[in-house]
Design brief:
The chain is 34% helix and 14% strand. The chain is of the alpha+beta class. Strand 5 and strand 6 (217-218) form a beta hairpin.
Length: 348
Amino acid sequence: MNQAIEKLLQKTESKQGIFPLQVLVFSESKGIKIEYPQKSADKLFHIASVGKLISTVYCLRLVEQGLLNLDDSITKYIDPELLEGLFKSIPEKITIKDCLTHRTGAADYFEGKDKDGVKFIDLVIKQPDQEWSRSRIYEFVRTQLKPVAECGEKFNYGDTAFMLVLMVIEKIKGKPIHLLLEEEMFKPFGLNDTQSMIYLYPSGLSKYPESIYLGKTDAKSFKSLNCDQADGGIVSTPNDLLKFQTLLHSGKLINDYHLNLMQEWQGVFRAGIHYGMGMMQIRFEEFFFLMRNFPRLIGHIGILATHCFYDSENDIHFIMNFGSSDKMTQSFVFLSNLVGTLKKEKII
């Protein structure tokens, strides 16, 4: 390993404290493989919203098979009664594409607060034995939150509408989403250590994941973690995510048209992070102007400071797990420094 990169990794690990760290950087064409710590690329971790990348690709595979259309209204598949109060627009106007691109105008339950000002994520922490069914989640949205806009009016990232797409898929296929992902995505493509944790945990897991910290609380055993319905509740490994991302960008999962559709940027998630359809793009120059020559990365992040990104310009994959919602900023500082070091050392 390059000495400058190793020093950066060691410095980063020293700041992690109790939180897990996994870093995998790989490029077959450039002969790059950075695995840190050693033998961590096969360790299971909760990928959080990185799961949206996988779920979106699965949805687009069904589109390519002619099983659904992105312009279908969600009311074609979902009881309108469940949708009552979720949107400003009438539900008939909400399409599958609107849900995948976060343009329905629905409020995000996961980042929301109830009428007493309590954050949803704090409810998850304070009530660890409280399970969150979809109907309970939507009741929370209906009674505690307000829609933010008319459909198509603005980009507003959130889990509320995205979860509806998984429900549409279940209706079409007649099976729960965790079984569909297992049977049609994970097993067929050799993602042997990837599964939907919220449906199987803990007894159904073949091995246990790294700790899952919401802030400084290890929530790995919390029943309330099943609130992660929109992402599929997926646990995976850096090696499996590398395999998935390699397949995606080699055209073996979806066609070029749909891969490009995922990269039609709809809005800004945060400064420097743009969102398309189940995919994000990192624009380092928006973090700091001196990074204007950095490559743009495409992929997704998760609230637990999980990253799955690809640099198509240099054919490099970046898979990371910083293990806590408190570590998101640090994870981006590290990613920026890592890409900067790769450039400085003329590796890219």
